[in-house]
Amino acid sequence: MKILLRGGYVHTPADPHATALCIEDGAIVWTGDDDASVHFEDGADRIVELDGRLVTPAFVDAHAHLAQTGLAAAGADFSGTADLHEALDVLAAHGRTTSDAVVLGYGWDETRWPEQRPFTREEVDRALGGRPAYLARVDEHSAVVSTAFLDACPDVVHADGYDVTGRVERDAHHAVREGLFRLLPPSAREDAILRALRIAAAEGIGMVHELGAPHICPPEDLLVARNLTAAGGLPEVVAYWGELDAVDLARELGAVGLAGDLCMDGSIGSRTSALHAPYADHPHDPGHDGHLYLDAEQVAAHVVTCTQAGLQAGFHVIGDRAVDAVTRGFAAAAETLGESAVVRGRHRLEHLEMVAPEQMQTLGRLGITASQQPAFDAYWGGEKGMYAQRLGADRALAMNAFATLNRAGVALAFGSDTPVTPFGPWAGVRAAAWHHTESERVTVRAAFNAHTRGGWRAAARDEGGVIAIGAPASVAVFDVPGDLVVQTPDARVAAWSTDPRAGVPHLPDLHPDLDLPRCVMTLVHGAVAHESEGELS
Ligand SMILES: [Zn+2]
Ligand SMILES: [Zn+2]
Fold it and tell me: Domain Amidohydrolase spans what residues (predicted)?
């Protein structure tokens, strides 16, 4: 298969004036200008006239949950609800449209509702006429289930984290998830994974890191994703499994790491992230400093096991007490194995939201990638956001320290944690460049790199994420509403020249007042994974 694209703006560091590129057998074989492109017309299966559009390396989403994303896309969506009553109306209306074994709903956030509390089991029972229901909080770390769901999964009520109102967190939430896997037919999960991959492709995403774990999905999901994508024409899936002592299972599943949402702690929103000092909105309750699921010794043992097995190790880690434990664990593993062995292991940490400067130094030295979600700051950052409500402004404003981590030599890879926040790479780039905390903003180019090449590198796949001769032909074509620019959103000195003669490749103007670029085509290893109908010749 040979495809020639021309008449656009090709984002490549190799040639700032490139307007055309040629793809053959899944690789980029040439970039140049339109005049020279005539030499590549011969034998082309398709010639795409770009009409001034932008071509970039396809995005990578370095943290996704495909089945949940697909299920959420087909479930009740509470993300835009103004109060609890509206959410119950949305739920009842959704219930009337589905005959599924379990009614699913996603994205509720009681901190955005005047009632400041989630649904109760009785309210859900009434809205759905007593059907089984699973309604996940926006951070996916807690949920509310209906009475009929509990009847089908009677273990849940005995688990730690169960509340009689139907709210479940921690062990009880894990038991609920396992019950959900049993109640839904496997075909529902396969459909959901396919749906999620198509949504990703339509956003210009060519690679998804699927972060499975026992509390999130059955291991078979990783095999389903692999089978679905084997024929091409969908985003590539890099699989991770988050479980201790599971080297054989990782190999069976084709996972590249025992990493991802292997949880050190929970989430800020659910008050389950492990903190040094208590949650600010529970000041009189000294026990309220979250939950640490693994200690430094367990981390060290896991990192040693994975490094020796040639697998990436990694953890979900958010609160400062959890980051402290995970950093000490990595340092201990480096003492056992030697620093360079740990660096070569290409390990990674998910979220990494509350990091102290000395921890950044350790993580940078050990070559750890920070897999982060800029949309978390856009959703929950700032002086009045949910993080500030839970932690107080001082701790909240120091979170998601993209710029400081970058300066400490910690490589960044961006993702969405979908369905926590939706697939939306340009929104992620914008969120990082317009961080609520000005000193943690990074340039659009740095954020773009973290959402493209950074994702390939996080998976130890150093060959991709850039338009260059010989690189994998995973690229996306965008309609850009504004201008192509070199953008440094804050007033500090730019890290490179904005002078056009310097040849720095341009990117869309992502100023928050403007519309974001719109994907019209995504190619994955040269195969079409998405194309908007009737837009390209
Ligand atoms: Zn996580
Ligand atoms: Zn996750």
Answer: 47-529
Largest alpha-carbon pair distance within the chain?
A: 74
Superfamily of domain 186-458: Metal-dependent hydrolases (3.20.20.140)
CA 353–ligand 2 middle distance (angstroms): 13
270, 139 Cβ separation under 8 angstroms = yes
Interface TM-score (ipTM) > 0.90: yes
Tell how far the Cα of 316 is from the centroid of ligand 2, in angstroms: 8
The bridge status of strand 54-57 relative to strand 9-10 is: parallel
- Looking at all shown ligands, the one closest to residue 216's CA atom is 2
Looking at residue 51, its pLDDT comes to: 95
Pick the CATH number of 2-58+466-481+516-531 from 3.65.10.10, 4.10.320.10, 2.30.40.10, 3.40.50.1110: 2.30.40.10
What average pLDDT does range 475-497 have in this prediction? 71
CB 453 within 8 A of CB 438: no
Query: Order of strands across the sheet with 142-145?
Result: 76-77, 103-108, 133-137, 142-145, 167-169
Expressed in angstroms, the distance from the first to the final Cα of the chain is 17
Q: What is the distance in A from the centroid of ligand 2 to the CA of 49?
A: 39
Q: How far is the CA of 353 from the centre of ligand 1 (A)?
A: 11
Q: What is the pLDDT, as a whole number, of residue 85?
A: 96
